[in-house]
Write a structure and sequence with these properties.
heterodimer, A: about 850 residues, alpha/beta, ten-stranded mixed beta sheet, eight-stranded parallel beta sheet, about 15% strand, B: about 170 residues, about 45% helix
Chain lengths: ~850, ~170
């Protein structure tokens, strides 16, 4: 039986998602339609056709629902309806048990009476006795600050105090700012505002560890170059490097010019390099230039969504750094295509650790119920740092439906993660970090007491750089030169590293004062001392808030003496005896003096990430260019483990006789990888799978020749490598933005989904090929003149390197076979290439 | 919001003032005529900030981004409605207010601020012209009678508020 609901207060996407998520089949939002009618009557809309306008509204809600469902990994409305995938914050047991039985509701909250009062209050606003001729409803102010609207932590007063105090270096003014943020009294914008500190034996301020030693615990948020301007991005990096803290590259890669220190000692290099699902510009050289590598599983403000950069923000520079085509929009896929389980994550951690032994590996999770279990798994998967990201952060360009309705506060996530890690004797192995609108020393103190020993600050740092929360980050029109790539607007950027440093100095001093008051001499002493040093406020500002259950957040789990409650020891990464140590030995002549080295090795499936550490050595010495092609010529025989040739740098040429497991050539960075079946095998190569799933994921350059079939998701997010393979499984070339893929055999379904760049050539595709492709962004075309010579070249190379019989057949009768190729061409990419050609022609003319 | 790129396309521009000598002879408008299109362009310069500092800077709390957008759309009825919800006499403040809104305008950080005061005046003038400024006596009165002493802008504003609160009111 279907249930149809007629409701006046179903207005925005989240309302519909919740109704459908709890089983409703259809919604009639009569108030929304009435509002549209009224707007037409009052000439508030440019168009007057009511039916069209209603359709537009319905369509917009529908699209919003699609977005919400896709975030949860659900494809059909049928699967979403009644799925009840929500977490409740602020509803009391009375309501939850009756209306939402089974849904997680951790902190309790309001009753039916409270709800009734809210509804009555709204009713009175609508049906007041005031003059009906000039009756205006209150302004709201959820997404835009209003004097009489919803309270926001950042408002004209706090922004003014923060900017002025850091510009002038005025700590007293900063204290005014901190006071204004901390004193939320009746508004109670955050959970932490409901906590208080206990009275404890203080120590003198001079006994507390100095600000300088606290600096290393600070990071700035992961905002990519692309989402924010070069000026805004590099100013943060310079400031953080000056004080020994860490800035974050974000997921958009980083221009190598920033890796070199400037003459005055300043360094624009981001200490943290992010590895997100898009893998933009994630090369061996990129990974080598980091103190920390952060795997972004999700974003606190919009869990489940990948980053999106609209085409108008992708200029020449950003296109180059991201290894993509300028003008073509970029979508980060929601999942990492190489992570489908905790074991996969452990593999990626291992790959990255091999790619840079000195870097800490950080895994970014978001606050949600159950994150504690995930964190325990991540700790066992050998992460060095776990970041719990809260919901309030990073909302600049997020979709409106995510700003208020996705993610949870970090207080809940940090408490749960810390408590679970302590309970499982894992806490000492990892650093716990948190972020999401941390603003003051008080916020830092509460985060620390709940269990986080490092903290990320993003919005506050941007405000110091001049951000005034325009909330136009997605429009490229930021008037202070931060969230824009428009050169004219970038010139208006007025941020200064000194101001940013002032912010972190003030925050550290503020925290130190808190520590002195609470009697902690060091941050380590303070981590996780929740219930010993804090409590729920004795008097809560409103009756409504008294119904909240906050004790669990601050409960303290007894720790074992051996393992303790803060980071004490490093993870035992299993990289001491990897095959690469041997490879590096044999490659010494190449590494030291660019001489050719040759070697033969037996390999088996316990040898994982072969080539990653060697590539790290190449990148350290020879930067992004690496060594000349074919300098290190190693051949292997056997069954290679996962991530064979991961991040292989230029100069590496690996020939594997045998087969390889998943993630073959992950993040390929200029190297050449060749695979062909064992000489004793008898199978027909183009009929058998020889390399596993997710090969070439995130490859940026290099060449691959596979004498056999590849598994599923071949060359996903490839942005520049060329590959010849004799067949692929499902989802081939998904999200590809560059490079060439030649397939001398069958493809699976959903080929070229989301492919916005690069070209694929498929041999003898047959009439059913179009039905296997995802045609949303591509066209199927015959070859043109330029393709033919390029293709012949690649296939000849394939034949030479692998001895492929199929390649031999094709090349031996090229004239006949070349017409059997279908070209898979992304439309946007084609348009950009054509316009560029036009420019070139004009220049030569 | 009006036009996302308006602030990059248009510069701040105000109507010119009349010749001083001529002005001495009358009590007429200080400014010469300003085409409506130009006022609309001035309104298009508003960036509809996430935190409208103008709205904070205005002692009355005028909802400035909203009425700027209405002017950009040439919807004068809406514009005067928004303006009157916080301001009883835009025809005064549009002329003689020191305009702290303009001093706090975000665009003013690195460009000349939005011409808010001018826009306010235009809304008031246009509303008079189109007949939108009407007496609005409440249908039901509380029955209370309040005397306001003095009938300058402050006294009149107090009276207007009392009228909205459904009291009878006499200015003396």
């Amino acid at each position: 039986m279907g249930i149809i609901i007629e409701a006046g207060d179903a207005i925005e996407v989240h309302h519909f998602a919740t109704l459908i998520g709890y089983g409703i089949s259809a919604v009639y939002p009569y108030m929304a339609f009435e509002t549209i009618r009224q707007m037409v009557k009052e000439r508030l809309l440019k168009r007057a056709d009511l039916a069209d306008l209603n359709n537009n509204y319905t369509k917009a809600i529908g699209n919003g629902l699609l977005k919400v469902m896709s975030k949860m990994g659900i494809s059909t409305l049928q699967s979403y309806q009644g799925a009840q995938i929500f977490e409740i914050i602020g509803l009391g047991d009375e309501i939850v048990e009756r209306c939402f039985p089974g849904t997680i509701s951790r902190i309790g909250g309001i009753s039916f009476d409270n709800l009734a009062k809210d509804i009555l209050a709204r009713h009175q606003l609508a049906f007041t006795h005031a003059n009906p001729n000039n009756h205006r409803l209150p302004v709201g102010g959820l997404y835009q600050w209003k004097r009489n609207g919803e309270a926001h932590l950042f408002n004209p007063e706090t922004i003014h105090y923060l900017q002025q105090s850091t510009r002038r270096g005025d700590y007293d003014l900063y204290k005014k700012y901190a006071h204004a943020i901390n004193e939320q009294s009746e508004k109670a914008i955050t959970l932490r505002s409901l906590f208080d500190f206990k009275k404890r034996e203080p120590v003198s301020l001079s006994e507390v560890e100095p600000a300088e030693s606290i600096f290393k615990r600070f990071a700035t948020g992961a905002m990519s170059f692309g989402s924010i301007s070069h000026e805004a991005h590099s100013t943060l990096a310079i400031a953080m490097n000056r004080i020994g803290a860490k800035s974050n590259s974000g997921e958009g890669g980083e221009d190598p010019i920033r890796y070199e220190k400037k003459a005055n000692g300043d360094w624009e290099r981001s200490a943290i390099k992010q590895v997100a699902s898009g893998r933009f510009g994630v090369s061996s050289y990129y990974l080598t230039n980091a103190k920390e590598l952060q795997i972004k599983i999700a974003q606190g403000a919009k869990p489940g969504e990948g980053g999106q950069l609209p085409g108008h923000k992708v200029d020449e520079w950003i296109g180059r750094v991201r290894h993509s085509t300028p003008g073509v929009g970029l979508i980060s896929p929601p999942p990492h295509h190489d992570i489908y389980s905790i074991e996969d994550l452990a593999q990626l951690i291992f790959d990255l650790k091999n790619a840079n032994r000195k870097a800490r590996i950080n895994v970014k999770l978001v606050s949600e119920a159950g994150v504690g279990t995930v964190a325990a798994g991540v700790a066992k998967a050998m992460a060095d740092v776990i970041l719990i990201s809260g919901a309030d952060g990073g909302t600049g360009a997020s979709p409106l439906s995510s700003i208020r309705h996705a993610g949870l506060p970090w207080e809940l996530g940090v408490a749960e993660s810390h408590q679970t890690l302590v309970l499982n004797n894992l806490r000492d192995r990892v650093v716990l970090q948190t972020d999401g609108q941390i603003r003051t020393g008080r916020d830092l103190a509460i985060a620390t007491l709940l269990g986080a020993e490092e903290w990320g600050i993003a919005t506050a740092a941007l405000v110091v750089e001049g951000c005034i929360l325009m909330r136009k980050c997605h429009l490229n029109t930021c008037p202070v030169g931060i969230a824009t790539q428009n050169p004219e607007l970038r010139q208006l950027f007025s941020g200064d590293p000194d101001h940013v440093i002032n912010l972190f100095r003030f925050l550290a001093e503020d925290l130190r004062e808190m520590m002195a008051k609470l009697g902690f001499r060091s941050v380590n002493e303070m981590v996780g001392q929740s219930s010993d040093a804090m409590k729920v406020k004795d008097i809560l500002p409103t009756k409504k808030l008294e119904s909240l259950r906050l004790d669990k957040i601050i409960q303290r789990i007894p720790e074992s003496d051996e393992h303790g409650i803060f980071h004490k020891k490093n993870q035992q990464h299993l990289i001491k005896e990897v095959l690469d140590r041997k490879l590096i030995e044999v490659a010494k002549p190449s590494l030291n003096s660019r001489e050719v080295s040759v070697g033969r090795f037996e390999i088996n499936n316990t040898d994982r990430a072969v080539g990653a550490m060697l590539s790290n050595e190449i990148s350290k010495k020879y930067d992004g260019d690496g060594l000349p092609q074919g300098t290190i010529r190693f051949s292997f025989r056997g069954s290679a483990g996962q991530s064979f040739g991961a991040f292989a740098a230029s100069g590496i040429k690996f020939a594997l006789q045998g087969e390889a497991n998943d993630y073959f050539g992950k993040g390929l960075s200029g190297g050449q990888l060749i695979v062909y079946p064992d000489r004793e095998s008898s199978f027909v190569p183009h009929e058998h799978t020889i390399i596993g799933n997710v090969a070439l994921y995130g490859a940026t350059s290099g060449e691959v020749f596979v004498n056999g079939i590849a598994g599923e998701r071949f060359a996903v997010r490839n942005s520049g490598a060329n590959a010849v393979v004799e067949g692929v499984g499902d989802h081939g070339c998904e999200y590809m933005t560059g490079g060439l893929v030649v397939i001398l055999g069958d493809t699976g379904k959903n080929f070229a989904a989301g492919m916005s760049g690069g070209i694929a050539y498929v041999y003898n595709a047959g009439s059913q090929f179009a039905s296997l492709c995802n045609m949303e962004m591509i066209d199927l075309e015959p070859l043109d003149f330029e393709d033919i010579s390029l293709l012949k070249q690649l296939i000849t190379k394939h034949m030479k390197f692998t001895g492929s019989k199929r390649a031999e057949t094709i090349i031996s009768d090229w004239a006949d076979h070349m017409s059997l190729f279908t070209k898979v061409m992304p439309r946007e990419y084609k348009a950009v290439l054509a316009s560029r050609k036009g420019v070139q022609l004009k220049q030569t003319a | 919001m009006g036009k996302p790129t308006g602030f990059m396309e248009f510069n701040r521009e105000l109507p010119e003032t009349r010749d001083t000598k001529k002005r001495l002879d009358d009590y007429k408008e200080l400014y010469v005529e300003f085409p409506e299109k130009k006022s609309s362009q001035q309104a298009a310069r508003c960036m509809d900030c996430g935190i409208p500092f103008c709205h904070n800077g205005c002692p009355l709390g005028n909802n400035i981004p909203e009425f700027n957008d209405a002017v950009y759309q040439s919807n004068w009825k809406l514009a005067i409605g928004i303006l009157q919800s916080t301001n009883n006499f835009p025809e005064f403040t549009g002329r003689i207010c020191p305009a702290p809104c303009e001093a706090s305008c975000v665009l003013g950080i690195n460009k000349p601020p939005v011409a808010i005061e001018h826009i306010e005046k235009i809304i008031a003038e246009k509303a008079f012209e189109l007949g939108y400024i009407q007496a609005n006596p409440p249908k039901i009165r509380t029955g209370k009678l309040v005397a306001v002493v003095g009938s300058g802008p402050a006294g009149l504003a107090a009276a207007a508020q009392l009228n909205k609160a459904r009291s009878y009111c006499d200015c003396v």
